[in-house]
Amino acid sequence: MNYWRLLACLPTLLFPQSLWAITPxxxxxxxxxxxxxxxxxxxxxxxxxxxxxxxxxxxxKARDCWQQAAQAGHAGAQFNLGQMYETGSGVERDTTAAALxxxxxxxxxxxxxxxxxxxxxxxxxxxxxxxxxxVSLFRQAAEQGLADAQNSLGRMYEMGRGIEQDVxxxxxxxxxxxxxxxxxxxxxxxxxxxxxxxxxxxxxxxYAWIRLAALKGNAIAKAHLMEVSGKMTxxxxxxxxxxxxxxxxxxxxxxxxxx
Length: 259
Description:
12 helices
């Protein structure tokens, strides 16, 4: 599935590999009109126009490509249109329209659309606030392995928002995202281990997860690290550093995938 992403507008999202693996396709010509292109080809061409890859950047043409593909039921194009309306890129910003397109893609099982629609519903942005529905959408995306959604689902459990509060389940979801290298989840997991500790023996693990996030520049994690380390002995801190290296290796191995 080819997606278009704006890092400046969506700083917490991860770029899927497919964005960088777009097969170059010629721009539509008099020989091959847009009406004759497949929805997949139209979606990919829309991504190229949005990014200016091999063609002059043109959001209007990107929108036209995605509109045609979306109307044919292409979930990736539906998501891309939703993101265009949510960020106001090339169109007037309209989160209600964004939610409508996200909902179409989400119904097709698109995990990024499920996640973005969940965020809109949690915030009541362009749609009626519905925390329970947001939880459901986060869960659908989280069960497909999306780290963003796993972290958000963990947060909903931690806060008891739209679902009964359960910090243990929150930590389970944070851990899944943390093992994908998701910085916010690493910080969240570490702090919840620290806050809910039953003994000082849990401090090294809490320190390790928070340290990983802090080393990536997360400001909240840096503050948490100072608090947690203030409760630890030098020996515990050293053990925490060793655990952090072990977790880092686990994440690298997981991200590399099977040989």
